[in-house]
Amino acid sequence: MGFKADVIIWDFATRSVLHKFHLHKVEVASLAFSHNEKYLATLGGQDDQNLIVWDVEIGKAVCGSIATIETAFMVKFFNNSDDKLITVNNLGIRIWDCD
Question: 55 and 48 in contact (C-beta within 8 Å)?
Fold first, then answer.
């Protein structure tokens, strides 16, 4: 399967598309905003397994990596942090530092 899975950020007030991101293959398994909504982390599904952090204001990817060999199914930012996040898979968790 080779089609792209889009992540779309909408402006709720104007009901218009702010950004459309397309780096994941087939599906986006999980996504999470940082506590102040400056960044968006997206996690691809089992065909992709990439973790990508996006700058919401400029609409560009700022970093990315393969999340795990096992299928990861959740990503979350730490409560008061823009640069720490966690991914969860069947075998455990992984803590990430974005710099």
Answer: no
